[in-house]
Design a protein that fits this description.
single chain, about 220 residues, alpha+beta, Ribosomal Protein S5, domain 2
Length: about 220
């Protein structure tokens, strides 16, 4: 099981810690903290599914997001949709036709950046499960303050006073943008600056992935 810390003064990302294979009864799992925000993700599958739920071309990807309070909201369904779309882009579902892959995300603590932490935790759980993937991805969030300053991985307090919030997901090969979601008002130049800063910061997350997977492989080897 790999545990590692990472921090950057240049990009001011919050410290990250992760443990793989956290759950014994899933095909892959990870618990990830980014700062004080903590998420647990598990992956099960490919599994047999009922005929009416089967796709002859690819596996069916099911995502369930569970809040700390237990009662789902419209925002939780929105998170599920974003995570599902991102994973469908990266998982090689065509390798597993007529099956289902189930991803469950449990919020443990939310001190800002819950969506990006959830996405990154799911990616690590998928890597742990051995599901075939086209690429690995990394999510980075940022906030635009009233002054125009861009803050990476903002806290709850910074999000509440921000003019805009943005999150970006990049694939590992060319750092191509896979998914983006924004709230608030901002200029085109601000969006471009935020995009490039988050793209650069994603290198740290990909490096974190490599360290975690390498240490885990050394342990089980």
């Amino acid at each position: 099981m790999g545990i590692e810390d990472i921090a950057s003064k240049e990009f001011k990302l919050r410290p990250m810690k992760c443990e793989l294979n956290f759950l014994s009864k899933s095909d892959g799992s990870a618990i990830l903290s980014q700062g004080e925000t903590v998420v647990l993700a598990s992956v099960n599958g490919p599994l047999d599914v009922k005929m009416q739920s089967q796709s002859i071309e690819k596996s069916t990807l099911e995502v369930l997001f569970c809040t700390k309070g237990g009662k789902p909201s419209v925002g939780d369904r929105y998170k599920e949709n974003i995570i599902r779309q991102t994973c469908e882009t990266c998982v090689l579902g065509s390798v597993y036709p007529r099956t289902a892959i189930t991803i469950t995300i449990q919020e443990l603590e939310d001190y800002g950046g819950l969506l990006s932490c959830s996405l990154n935790c799911v990616c690590l759980a998928l890597l742990n499960s051995g599901v075939a993937m086209r690429c690995v991805y990394a999510a980075v969030s940022c906030a635009v303050e009233d002054t125009g300053n861009i803050v990476l991985e903002p806290t709850h307090q910074q999000l509440e006073t921000a003019r805009a919030n943005m999150s970006f997901v990049f694939e590992s090969r060319e750092k191509t943008l896979i998914t983006s979601f924004t709230e608030g008002t901002f200029s085109e130049d601000t969006y471009k600056e935020a995009l490039e800063r988050c793209r650069a910061a994603s290198d740290l997350i990909f490096g974190f992935y490599r360290d975690i997977v390498s240490k885990y492989c050394n342990v089980i080897g």
